[in-house]
Amino acid sequence: MSDSVNGFAQGGADLELVGVTKQFPGFTAVDNVSFTVPAGSFFALLGPSGCGKTTTLRLISGLEEPTSGKILVGGKDVSNTKAHQRPINTVFQSYALFPHMTVLENVAFGLKQRGVKDAIQLAHEALALVELDHLADRKPMQLSGGQQQRVALARAVVNRPALLLLDEPLGALDLKLRRQMQIELKSIQSEVGLTFLHVTHDQEEAMTMADTVAVMNKGKIEQMGPPAELYELPATRFVATFLGQSNLFDGVVSGTSGKVVRVAVGKLTLEVPTSRSKVTSGEITVGVRPEKIEISRSAPAASATRSVVGPGTVIDTSFTGVSTQYVVDVPGLNKLTVFEQNDGDIVAAGSKVWLSWATEYSFGLPMDTDQFVESDTTTRSLAVAKR
Amino acid sequence: MSLTAFSHGPSGVSAEPAAQKKSRIVWFLLLPGLVYLVLFFITPLISLVITALKEAPPGAFIGEYVTALRWENYSEVLSLYGEHSIRSFVYAAAATLIALAIGYPLAYFIGVRLRPYPLWQSLALVLVIAPFFISFLLRTVAWKQLLADEGFIVGTMKAWSILPPDTHITGTAVSVIFGLAYNFIPFMTLPLYSSIERLDLRLLEASNDLYAGAFTSFRKITLPLTMPGIISGTLLTFIPAAGDYVNASANFLGSTSTTMIGNVIESNFLVLQNYPHAASMSLILMSAILVLVSAYVFKSGTDDLL
After folding, report:
1. Which value does ipTM take for this structure?
2. Which end of chain B is more exposed for a tag (fewer CB within 10 A), N or C?
3. Residue pair A14/A36 in contact by the 8 Å Cβ criterion
């Protein structure tokens, strides 16, 4: 038995997807996806439901067969092997714990299949790692959701797989438990040094846990990189709106001057650093994150490094504790969202305000006309109306 | 003072009649079933126990018995019909195994493979119970015709030299076991289906993910989780099959060499009019099945599954 399952390293192994495509009758779930997850890293596949991230995971685990493309684990092509032959384990979204077995039997299952000698001993150790060894003789149904999740994790981790796949395992947990499990998962990952691939639709979860985040949409990877990089400089409109919030303005490039691209948005002109713009001519979408915007009651002094818009009217003020969220209606730009740290000075709704941000924080994206993203229909319809 | 009155009096007084009323309703609803049970099960059972101990007075006519405590009835039937009893259980066990071997894949196909197609699933289930639209006796007679020596099946098999020229199928153990298995397949398939239909396929994926191949996953996951269906299916097949007297009768698929307990009881009651023997045989059959079934259920350890 153990001979058929090769490649069990004590640490993780590289995972490489080369042009992987999965077609189901009528639609393409995963479209020519390629990426590499280096050994020992924590990689998150982030996307909305139906974007193909779970299918990607199932392709890697071997529960689905790719239509084309190759999957390599530790440099070895596993595309033609079955799920039970791959040195990969999954923590399923539903946990999928075997209801007729005790917690201990669940955890020892994989080890016994591989003919590992001290399966029971190792299973106890894995349960101790997730602090559940005292419940080893219970049946899964007798445990709480969070405990079941930890058993599912122990059942996968105990095998020391080259690659551990996590299919939204925290989805069913309440917020507090989820935060706690996120921290635990991260510490377990660094403790055992496995390669983790985490699939989630929760952008906060992806950003707090992963070294590298790949944002997936409609079966394709839109952008990949460290969380901070993706957040600060999104490459597509989808990433800009899915990963956090963005104020986006559709316009046309009206000129470039060395370091900045000038963009005409209605009657206004905004500037974007050339190095942060994917587009330098024609149609463009300019974006800025809400927390980068400063709100002021009087017109700020003109500056070469800051973009200023206004005056506008505060139409909504919501106090969230650490920050205040404003919705400001600026003629020509429509509604902007602004996050202001709670410094004790709250601008009341109806006030006349000016908004400004350091030009270096804005970014330029290709205007993606076939994509519908709810939050900025207003600015888009403006741009369309202008044409 | 008013506080104490509140905490004891009203709540204590009103709670009890409510509970009493509730239990009266429960008994009232159970009444038809209880009456039915007493009239048609308990009473005949008592009558059976009494009959089993009756004896024929000296010079009595055939079928004339008086109440007595004749325990010899039991030892007599055991020595007379011991062989038939063993044959009954062997036939019933064989038929149960065959029905399981046919019913399990069938139920699995309907419950798992057809799961994405609910319409086909319902249609397949209707087909499983379709034989019930025709009388059990008619179907068994039909099989007698089909398996007859001059019938198409035996004729063809002999022509192709699959069967030696002088073989018969009807009247042999083969045809009786076949008939029993055939008649009880729906009773096997339906409980299996209801258990397999609930099987969470994600558990099989998890098992695959944990290095278990298809066969091991079946043995370690599917089989234990569908055990309740197997238990109830085999019980629903084995119990009636052990007492069946149609398939094994010479009028249908059997002959005098395939007589089962059911046939013995039938002929003692209706032909020989030896009521004490028939009654004691019935009670022995009942207890034997009870013992076998409880041993089986305990052995399967399905207390939390059933």
Report:
1. 0.79
2. N
3. yes
